[in-house]
Amino acid sequence: MKYFPIDTELFKKNRAQAIKALKPFSTAVLNSNDIMPSNADGVMSFIQNTDLFYLSGIDQEESIMVLCPDSKEEKHSEILFIKKTDEKIATWEGEKLSKEEATRISGIKTVYWTEEFEQIFKPLAMESEYIYLNTNEHLRADTTVQTSDSRFIKWCMTAFPVHKYERLAPVMHDLRAVKSEIEIDLIKTACKITESAFLRILSFIRPGVWEFEIEAEIAHEFIRQRSRGPAFETIVASGEKSCILHYVQKNRQCAADEVVLIDFGAEYANYAADVTRTVPVSKGFSPRQKEVYNAVLRVQKSAIEMLTVGNTLKEYHKSVGKKMEQELIGLGLIDKKDVASQPKDKPLYKKFFMHGTSHYIGLDVHDYGDRYREFAPGMVFSCEPGIYIKDENLGIRLENDILITENGPVDLTGNIPIEIEEIEDLMNQS
Q1: What average pLDDT does the structure give for the chain?
Q2: What's the CATH architecture for 9-176?
Q3: Cα–Cα distance between 354 and 351 in angstroms, integer?
Q4: Helix ranges (DSSP H) in 256-368
Q5: pLDDT of 408-429, one tens digit each?
Q6: What is the band of 430 on the pLDDT scale with cuts at 50, 70, 90?
Q7: Alpha-carbon distances, residue 134 vs 64, 169, 177, 259 (angstroms)
Q8: The dihedral sign for the CA sequence 62, 68, 72, 75
Q9: Quick check: pTM over 0.85?
């Protein structure tokens, strides 16, 4: 992997917390993601199952982790199964992790080859009353493609039909919502890399540049700083495309007097940054662009102040909506009288600000977390209000990554320029 080694204590502590949440006489099983095919004999880049990574630090395909804290053999309380290197694999792909390397990364002392899984697992299952199965229960998950976890669920329930089965996902969602200091440092690194990419493109953007050229500059900076690349597909949206929330074609040429909205974030050690900036193609905002930009910025600053211990996403989004209403009235986009009589479930501001303001960030850019849970120290959220005016071909979104602490919100992306004057100054330095 490109990233520097991670302190093994992170994974040891994560496993200890997970084990505390299991019922007595339980076995939990987590599988790595598959390497997905593309076409012919091609494959896509491997991205690890984030739950498995969270508990083990293992970043390799065909890996399995088993937790069986009440095993009759102490050595089987924590087990890793990893892919064995043979001569063909060594020649074509390079050697995979050795057992010693897997132990050094994860802190798990008992390591077997993946081909030995059934032989080792069956006695453990027989000892156990409960089997915890893992699967992707993210509310926005696309489960069309069968995963290694889903294949395992079918196999396990067929092999052990009268066991009691439990869901591991609620345990992982609860644990992963609050980040440790090591995790926060990894997210900070992803944010720092993202900052470097933004500073790089400010001098590059000008009329005539293609959106994909901006993306290329971002990707270059990410990879040269030990990132695998973007944590999600980069959005570079100029002119009328700035009003499309998830515009990813990036095949438009940036024109003078437009803005370009860039939603991007580096991955580092599987952790994500998520930042959006909107900048003027001609290196200076028009009066109207400034007016809308500053309205979005005021909403963001107000929203960041609400990311405090004890608040909830439901109440937070309601409060941000009220702030956005006032800004849209000030911009002449909605009428104060109409707002007073609007349906409660269909606020008028949604025409110009149709998405949520914040989501959890961590190993996944839209990380696990209960939307009804009170904010707690160690949670990390995006903060991304936007105003999209299709009639003016003007979309402006601003997004920072915010850490919840006992002493108030901490902006992990606070060094990334966001004020109009600073952005214009930096764009005009070359």
Answers
A1: 97
A2: 3-Layer(aba) Sandwich (3.40)
A3: 6
A4: 287-306, 313-330, 336-340
A5: 999 999 999 999 999 999 999 9
A6: low
A7: 11, 6, 17, 44
A8: positive
A9: yes
Widest Cα–Cα separation across the chain: 75
Q: How many residues does the chain have?
A: 430
Do residues 20 and 45 lie in contact, with contact meaning Cβ atoms separated by under 8 Å?
A: no
CA distances from 148 to 26, 143, 336, 353 (A): 21, 12, 53, 38
Domain ranges of the chain: 9-176, 181-427
> Would you say residue 283 has pLDDT above 90?
yes
CATH superfamily of 181-427: Creatinase/methionine aminopeptidase superfamily (3.90.230.10)
The per-residue DSSP string of 114-153 comes to: GGGHHHHHHHHHHH-SEEEE-----TT----S--HHHHHH
Q: Specify whether the CB–CB gap between 341 and 404 falls below 8 A.
A: no
Describe the strand order of the beta sheet including 380-383 as a list of residue ranges.
380-383, 400-403, 410-411
DSSP readout, 358-374?
--B-SSSSS----TTSP
| Confidence class for position 344, pLDDT limits 50, 70, 90 | confident
